[in-house]
């Protein structure tokens, strides 16, 4: 690969993170039922059951979008390739 600026072949190719997107999903019906049962049990045991039984929180997914970027080691020019 050649640099379009100076014509050098001393080029470094890197993957650069462009953006991230996070999607959150709720706990759902069974998660809400679990949290309700946890609360009722905690009331009966004065909160001691909460040390063992953890709350349902839901899920979280993250998508990362990246792009290829070339960097000329001689002149410092950078450009994006597809």
Structural write-up:
This protein is an alpha+beta fold. Helix content is 21%, strand content 40%. It has a 3-stranded antiparallel β-sheet, with no helix packed on it. A hairpin with a 5-residue loop joins strand 2 and strand 3. The mean pLDDT is 91.
Kindly report how far apart the N and C termini lie. Answer: 13 Å
Arithmetic mean pLDDT: 91
How many H/I helical runs? 1
Based on secondary structure, the structural category is alpha+beta
Number of strands: 3
Order of helices and strands: EHEE
Spatial shape: rod-shaped
Query: What share of the residues lie within helices?
Result: 10-25%
Concise structural overview:
This protein has 82 residues and is an alpha+beta fold. Helix content is 21%, strand content 40%. It has a three-stranded antiparallel beta sheet with strand order 1-2-3, with no helix packed on it.
Write the layout of secondary structure elements.
Elements: E1 11-25, H1 28-44, E2 59-72, E3 78-81
Antiparallel strand pairs: 1-2, 2-3
Which short descriptors sum up this protein?
1 helix, alpha+beta, 3-stranded antiparallel sheet, rod-shaped, 82 residues
């Amino acid at each position: 690969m050649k640099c379009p600026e100076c014509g050098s072949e001393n080029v470094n190719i890197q993957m650069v993170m462009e953006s991230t997107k996070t999607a959150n999903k709720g706990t759902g019906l069974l998660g809400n039922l679990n949290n309700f049962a946890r609360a009722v049990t905690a009331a009966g045991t004065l909160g001691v059951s909460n040390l063992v039984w953890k709350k349902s929180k839901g899920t979280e997914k993250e998508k990362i979008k990246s792009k290829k970027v070339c960097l000329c080691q001689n002149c410092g020019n950078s450009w994006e390739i597809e």
